[in-house]
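Morning. Coffee machine broken again, so started the prediction first thing and wrote up yesterday's gels while waiting. Chain of 76 residues, entered below exactly as on the submission form.
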Amino acid sequence: MNATPILRSRQEQLIEHRFAEPMDTLLRRLYVDEGLTQAQIAERLDAGHRSVVRWMVKYGIPTRDRRALAPEAGAA
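Came back before lunch.
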């Protein structure tokens, strides 16, 4: 059975061309491997934050829990 190809927007195609890397791989590398935030990724890709969030959902990239990353209240 053939998997249905994921349709990519023109913006995704341009980003893939500029970075010479498939969008899902690029997002995963920046977010998971390099630990960038969604806002930092948006800035690096010259895209909107909402676009980055939408792409991460589209490609099944789980987001980090912000509560787990926040410093505990009262910690010195």
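Helices lie at 10-19, 23-33, 38-45, 49-58, 66-69. Going to sketch it on the whiteboard this afternoon.
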